[in-house]
Amino acid sequence: MNPTVGIAVILTVLQAAHCQMIKDLSACLLGQNLRVDCRYENKTSNPLTYEFSITKDNRKHVIHSTISVSENIYRSRANVTMHKNLVCLHLQSFTTSDEGVYMCELRATNDYTGNQIRNITVIKDKLEKCAGFSLLIQNTSWLLLLLLSLPLLQAVDFVSL
């Protein structure tokens, strides 16, 4: 084997190794809705797939996923948003029947080290309200509008006014 090709193969394998790692899994209430934040560190631009599930009564129920099929009872109530290094599960009309052990599973394409999985036990009475900063992440339209208007504000010469 050509030494250059051998080095390229080794570098490709090393780049694929440890492509993403779940750093934190947290849950909070946003009104009557549950939000589960799965924060991760990503060291590749490879596409990321995810699965949020709940284990209750010793049975795994898929809530929302790009890896497998979601169960009907959650399909109309759940959605997922992805931001830089953050995958958020939003479950509408959260009740005590939705309590259990929630799991976030992440997998990067061509990551041969296996899936990253993290669990959190969610009990409605013990959940805190989501922090104010998380609301900004949820409602970014006004923030995006502000950021897009910054060049216009910089172009205006306030000194001459």
UniProtKB/TrEMBL annotation:
- Sum up the protein's function in the record's words: May play a role in cell-cell or cell-ligand interactions during synaptogenesis and other events in the brain.
**Residues annotated as signal peptide:** 1-19
Q: Where are the transmembrane segments?
A: none
Principal subcellular localisation of the protein? membrane
User: One GO CC annotation, please?
Assistant: focal adhesion
Record keywords: Cell membrane, Disulfide bond, Glycoprotein, GPI-anchor, Immunoglobulin domain, Lipoprotein, Membrane, Pyrrolidone carboxylic acid, Signal
Q: Which GO terms describe its biological process?
A: cell adhesion; integrin-mediated signaling pathway; positive regulation of focal adhesion assembly; regulation of cell migration
Its Gene Ontology molecular function terms? Answer: GTPase activator activity; integrin binding
Q: How does it sit in the membrane?
A: Lipid-anchor; GPI-anchor
Q: Where in the cell is it found?
A: Cell membrane
Q: Which PANTHER family match?
A: THY-1 MEMBRANE GLYCOPROTEIN
Ranges of residues in domain Immunoglobulin V-set: 33-106
- Give the source lineage, highest ranks first: Eukaryota, Metazoa, Chordata, Craniata, Vertebrata
Q: Pfam families under this entry?
A: V-set
Q: What is this protein called?
A: Thy-1 membrane glycoprotein
Give the gene symbol.
Thy1
Organism, by scientific name, is Sclerurus mexicanus
InterPro entries to which the protein is assigned, alphabetical:
Ig-like_dom_sf, Ig-like_fold, Ig_V-set, THY1
Q: Which SMART domains match?
A: IGv (SM00406)
